[in-house]
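Archive entry. Fields below.
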Amino acid sequence: MAKVDLTVEICGMSGDGTIAAGGILNEAMSKAGLSVLAFDSYPAEIRGFGRCVTLSRFGDEEMVALDDKIHVLISLDDKQSQSRVPFLAREAMVLFDNRPPSYVDAAASIAAHVEPDVRLFGMPFGDLAAAASGSTRGRNLTALGGFAALMGIPPEFFHGVIRKKFSGKGEKVLEANLKSFDAGHRFALDEFGTVEEGLGDFHGEREEEERILISGNEAISRGALDAGLELYFGYPITPATPIMEYLAKALPPRGGRLVQMEDEIASIGAVLGSFFAGKRAMTATSGPGLALMTELITHGVMSETPAVIIDAQRGGPATGLPTKTEQSDLHAAVFGGPGDSARIVIAPTNVLECYSYTLWSFQLAEKYQTPVIVLTDFFLNNRVENLRLPAVSEAERADWNVYPEEEVREKYLRYNLTESGISPRAIPGMEGFLFSATGLEHTERGTPDYSPENHMKMTEKRHRKILGALSDLPEPQEFSEGVSLDVGVIAWGSTFGSAMEAASAARKQGLKVGALKITSIFPYHADKIREFMNRCREVLIPELNYEGQLANLIGHLHGKDVVRLNRTPGMPIPASMILDKVESIIGHG
Amino acid sequence: MTEERFVVVGNGPAGHQAAMTLKERVPDADVTVISRHRGSAYRPHLLPDFVAGKIPEADLYVCPTDSYKEKDVRLRTGQKVVSLDLKERSVALDHKEIVRFTGLIIAAGGKPRIPETLFIFRELMLTLKTLEDAKLWREKLSRCDSVLMMGGDLTSFAVTNALLQLNKKVYFMLDKEAFWPLRCDKATLEEAGHRLFRRGVEVLMERRVKSMARVSSRECEVQLNGDRVRAGIIGAFFGLVPDVRFLVGSGLRIDRGILVDEYLNAGSAGVFATGDCAQIYHPEIRDYWVSIGHDNAVNLGRTSALNLLGECVKVEAARESIFEVQGIRINTSWWMEF
Amino acid sequence: MAKTIKYSTDPEDFYYMGVNVPCQAACPASTNIPAYIRALYEEGYDLSYEINRLANILPGVLGRICSRPCEDRCRHGEAELGHPVNICHIKRAAADLKQGLSRPEASPWTPLGKKVAVVGSGPAGLAAGYDLSTIGFDVTIFEALDEAGGMLRYGIPEFRLPRSVLNEEIDRILTGGADLRTGVRVGKDAAVEELLRDFDAVLLAAGCYKSIPLGVPGESLPGVHPGLEFMMSVCSNRPPAIGDRVLVIGAGFTAFDCARSAVRLGAGDVAICLRRTEEDLRVTKDEVLETKKEGINILSLMLSRRVLGSTRVEGVEFVRTSPGEVSPDGKRTIAAIEGSEFVLPADSVIVAAGQRPEPIEAGALKDAQGLAAADRDSFRTSLKGLYVAGDYLTGPSTVIESVGMGRRAAERIARDLTGKAFREKAVRMEEAEITDRKRTWDYLPREEMPAVQPVQERFRRLNVEVETGLTPERAKEESKRCYLCYLHYEIDVSRCIYCRYCIDVAPRDCIKLVKEVLTNEVGAVTGFVETTRWREVNAVVIDNSRCIRCGECMRVCPVNCISVTRVELTERPAEEGLSHD
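PREDICTED_STRUCTURE:
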């Protein structure tokens, strides 16, 4: 049975229904039993200008990264689709509308631009939709119907998804869409037949396996809700805004509240205030917003107050590239802000981890009485995967606050110097526990104090506390075979998926390559990382930033210089690029 | 640096050769070949051998698709030309794209002819012109033992050969329609029939088809006047008719094929027709003729390209040459007369 | 609530009709095609038949044998839209399916006390005779042959036009009041001068009954038949004997009728020999295909030089031709290629190379052919009261052209005799809603006319009608395909908000962003200057010459600023005292 690994792109002009079609495609393929990893890009304008592209990768194994080659391109607007032609794989399939309303020049025809090995499938999308339903509006579904026929995918999977999606819009609209889809399916079957066999037996999902399609942003939101989030304070910023939108709808029915604050400074202030008062709260922002939050984040460090901040990284610096992906806030998240202000920084690598790390971050924040920054990136926030969200145990939702014992009430020291560095925290309102919390350096009691020994002791305590979190933080995870490696690829965030795929491809070629996943950015597991690096002849760290920010952080653990692969194209690093670098490293070694 | 944009319609032996010749002579010209077949140029005269299983598919191809890019010839596959606008000097493709040219060579080839009297039985008959056809023949031959060949054109003898090598039972309905549009004389028909008979083929002469029907999933039955034949495949080999209906109304003169002079010029500056689709009036033969056969097509392809570039090469008029096809002597002038 | 109906005789409205309802404009009789197609869709077969009859008094006949100039212009046949509507076969369906007629047949007009003689009972004569008799003239139709119909009866074989259909329609025409006298050859049995004394006007519509010979040596050998005579014999049930190998030389309808009749008479090997190519034929493609299905070969690019044979025909010598450009009269020039002679054997040869009128002595000024010279627009000759129309005037044309000419000749005669026009053309405009045509109907495939299969069945008798007619269901399906070009869609510029949703849903380039509207000297819209620069746009305009009346723009317009009007070119009785020239 052939291994299924198919990348499908739908490209159109805004207004063509590209995104809707992509959504239906992803759902249908998920229902058909395949794994889905999908990512849309679209412009701000609603109609008429700008390219929409949906990119989906389907497979029978879990997909961890996007492919840089397209196997099937569905063109809903030939002018826009031309830019995708250089990414077509050999013998790729291109579906296009071969009956545009008027005659066109080569510039507006995709057939004029593809290589001769590309297989063209021209179908009159608009005419078929109009003939079946009376309107050309369903042409995006007609194209999907054609795709289903060519690939031998049973149309029932699509029918179910279409019904669900349009059931709220009335019988007429639903019928029109189903008819448009079927018209495309019928035409393609008659005209071309099923061209790609062996795409899987499409057993469909078994009920116990049922997966949902979920984006990174939605996963973060649900992780927070499942952690018992009751309060959200934030300010909209791309790419974190969907989190706010989701929670704005989801919180009130649960008895929670969402407040849009006047800016990010107020947002982090409110989160800190909330946690201070004992309630879990969260804010989500991007690079520019994180910068605004910096001072108050360090207040949380100094006053040892928990907070959960999601930083959805995007192209920077400054306003930067709001709709492009990047991993360049690591320095800011780990080191940003005045003073020695160590705090916990974690970075998920896929949508499931977006969920579980967000869920986790509340407990980490509470136990270690510190702001926790969860670093994601535009690609991760917006991409969609199909997965099963795990059931959450009580333990995972539990309150990890370390409360003080009854006995110490009379002589409660808020900032008690303990062995772990964690000082049991009273919540305001706990009877008898009087304390002050401040951003000024302070004594164990919390009163301001600037004396030399005190500051040195407190600074050391706070750092010891954070380092202690290593025992609760996920360790680096290795993906390799054998002990000694020619190249070890270390990556974080969404880049890790490409790294893992590249390492796996290299191993298939017989090269000794392994991958290491780092999700605890700070504190990091220095011993484990060093141990891995020692087994590698060379270490490669690919990341989506110019300075090599993770390399800067952990590179010193390697006996020699690490090899950096630093890129800022605004798009994910493809596995093939990492593989090429690995091969060139080995070639020169 | 030249502004020339040459377009060749068709990537068969004639079109392929025309494009290559144009590129050789004018390396920086823009040469585009538009073919409705997916894939690179292949040799149609080897299809009977492919059907017989004597050669693999890979051997049919003239060159890999990548080599067009290396030679800087733009090959557009799976795309069909549907009309020509002489005034605008452009062709329109099936997907409504306009392609402009400064020079045009039409090498659209021929398509298998089904006599109108047998039109209603079209669906039951198999022809052999394209690679897709050949694959269908192979697939069907794996499931049947007998073939009724109808007609008697050049391809039919090669296919009969292939069928005999595969040990299939062959019936051959040979009649005057076969050498369409020429009515051939009785003596030739009889000689052809005799030769086939000696190879073990059951020959049916001067029959008229009364009806044709599928009687089972594996067999069709043909009622002739006086006979009834059952066979797994019914093959139609009534010759090729130039595939040029799409040019009617364009301003080019069309009869059976595109009417051209002995230089293959179609009557409009910079527009030539070549290969099986050209109907040539040759002053030495003193009649119209359409070429057939692979080698002729290649030669005509080269000639049309040279003439498009300004040379004056006359098409060779092979006279009364007689050649042997599958042991049957055939006068080529038959194939050339109309 | 009554809808507003307006009539207009403005030249700009006539211009509009000529461009926007191309089928009607192409019809020499100006048949209101969309209206009769719509009537059939609504299953009003009688109404559909009547609408035809207003313009053409032989719908059942034309529904079978018309040359269909309308279909060549049908908008549905434009390049990317598919195939023309099967207009002719819908007409036949209306004729076949009608129950009775809705109009009384007796002449409703008071007799004028004037008499008109019509010479010839072919399509032109019948059309003129009917019109004149129904408005009160006392009409006598003189016919030289035994029965009325002219070429319809004697030139067109029964397998294309059943006699029952022809007879029924001729009978209906004669109930208009005209008196038919058969067996009277004007020019021999009666002189034109006599008629001019006894009648107030005489119309010569005698057709073309003189075969044009090839003019080659050997043409008079036994076994060579002039095509027209051959058909007349076949149609009179006295078919001549023919051999097995037959060559028919000619390219018109007569040639094809001869060839198809020859196979029915038993010839085994029949070929039609053309001087030009198949593409130059005026015969319909359907007919060419059926001809080939009947086993007839069509050979092209050959000019006959000599008929060979000693005591009877044995063959024909041809020379190859080279086709040239199409000349202004519509025919392609050909040149013989010397040295390319070849011979085809034959047992019989049928020469269908054209027909000419047989001159009738009339005492008027003659033209170069010896016929009474006449003006093509007014039909008048140099003699007062003497008129000429139909093939007799123009040479061989088509039946529908003759019908159109007959009607116009009747109008001319009526005006000359009474000083008044009795009817006039007008453009009728009525507010409409979008009809219940669905967009999906634009994709219906064309219904093809079923023909008798297997082909052998056609040859059992000479008069087996080959085309069997569309069933009511199929005719209705085909009628759905008509876009109903009589609908006029217009955007009210004063209410349009330039949102361009209409352009988004337009199926082709029919809605335009326009800088300027071009008009001609009568004020009719002739074109648009389009622009892609927003600042130059003055209006969003529906170009009705590209519009396929799908209604999508109306459905999507957010401000309902698109109106629909039904605009038809009709005739109505002229008001007293009006005369138009």
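CURATOR_NOTE: Chain B has two domains: 5-111+241-324, 114-238.
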